[in-house]
Each structure stands twice: as C-alpha cells, then as structure tokens.
C-alpha cells in the first residue's frame, strides 16, 4: 500500500493525490522528484550501504545529484543525529551499531530533505520493546513538528498512539477509528479502543 501511495507501484484503479497533484498522471522522473524532495521513507530493516559509515549513509540520499553543498548536508545530518540521540556515531560502520541506532539513522536519512510526509513501514517491527518505544517517541515528536506520518504496523500498542487508525484487509480499508492526539498518559484506554475495533471487525 505504501508503494502505491508513494507512486512506486502503478495503481490499477482509483487515484492517488499528493496535495493537488494526481500521481498517476506523472512520468517516472516527476514521481522520483516528488519522492526525493517531499517524501521520506522508514522501513522495518533500514537499508544501508555497508561500505559507507553512518554519516555518509544519512547524507547519501540528499546529495546524490552532486548539486548540493556537502558541508551544509553534513551539518544538517549531524544536527539530525543529535536530535535523534545518535550523535557521536558518525564514523561508525553500519555493523558497529545496534538495531535501534540503525533505525534512528534511517529516520535521519528520511528527514534530510525535510519531507512533507514520512512513510513508515513497520518501523518498530525488528526492535526490542525499549527501542521500539524510543523510536515511536521520536516519530511522534517529528509529527508534532509538522511532518505527516503514515505508518503501517501490526502492533496494537504502536497503532494506539496514532491520531487515526485504518484497518485494512486484502488491500481495502474496512474500518476507520479516529483517536485524539496521544497525550502520553492514556495508552491503556487507547489500546483497549483499538482492540475493541479489531474485535468488531472480526480480527
């Protein structure tokens, strides 16, 4: 679904709009430009180049065309690393950091071009409970700062922290559960509400 919404996969029906732009009408170059400048992607397993250190992996997607000031990109990447709690890991190899740290690096990379929306596909799925909680806290902070986030998850506790929960089956949205903005204090009640919604839909 995230691939269809971001224009990576060609849709066979309906439409996908990004603002006022119908993505299905765009050529691949125009789609790639939108994905590069206005969308960010965070995956369950961050894909990093093993021959590059953490800092270079973060900078890579933002500066690949060679037209940007590398010094400014480096400064921005280091600021994001500090913000996400991985300052000091710039020169580390990707094999020298934990899964949670690697996911934070993936989030930094996704934010390098200041996207309007962040697509997150099971971002906590491969993490232990502590790291998962930290990553969700980080994503929620990013959302509060104005970046929209569309997150796919099978974790009820993760879903309960969203403003809206959409239940899908066979590629179709079958139920929508609106929630108020998470305050950090009502997680148990929110989890119960999500579970009740799932039960009502036969999940």
Automatic annotation (TrEMBL):
Keyword entries, A-Z: ATP-binding, Nucleotide-binding
GO MF term list: ATP binding; ATP hydrolysis activity
Database matches in InterPro entries: ABC_transporter-like_ATP-bd (IPR003439), ABC_transporter-like_CS (IPR017871), P-loop_NTPase (IPR027417)
SUPFAM superfamilies: P-loop containing nucleoside triphosphate hydrolases
Family per similarity comment: Belongs to the ABC transporter superfamily.
Stated name of the protein: ABC transporter ATP-binding protein
């Amino acid at each position: 679904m995230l691939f269809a919404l971001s224009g990576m996969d060609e849709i066979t029906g309906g439409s996908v709009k990004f603002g006022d732009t119908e993505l299905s009408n765009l050529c691949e170059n125009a789609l790639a430009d939108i994905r590069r400048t206005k969308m960010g992607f965070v995956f369950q397993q961050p894909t990093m180049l093993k021959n590059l250190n953490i800092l270079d992996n973060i900078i890579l997607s933002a500066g690949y065309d060679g037209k940007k000031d590398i010094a400014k990109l480096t400064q921005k990447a280091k600021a994001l690393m500090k913000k996400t709690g991985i300052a000091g890991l710039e020169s580390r190899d990707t094999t020298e950091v934990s899964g949670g740290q690697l996911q934070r690096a993936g989030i930094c990379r996704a934010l390098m071009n200041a996207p309007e929306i962040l697509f997150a596909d099971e971002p906590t799925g491969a993490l232990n409970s502590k790291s998962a909680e930290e990553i969700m806290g980080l994503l929620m902070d990013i959302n509060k700062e104005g970046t929209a986030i569309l997150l796919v998850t099978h974790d009820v506790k993760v879903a309960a922290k969203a403003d809206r929960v959409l239940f899908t089956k066979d590629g179709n949205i079958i139920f929508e559960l609106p929630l108020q903005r998470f305050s950090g204090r009502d997680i148990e009640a929110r989890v119960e509400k999500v579970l009740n919604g799932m039960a009502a839909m036969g999940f």
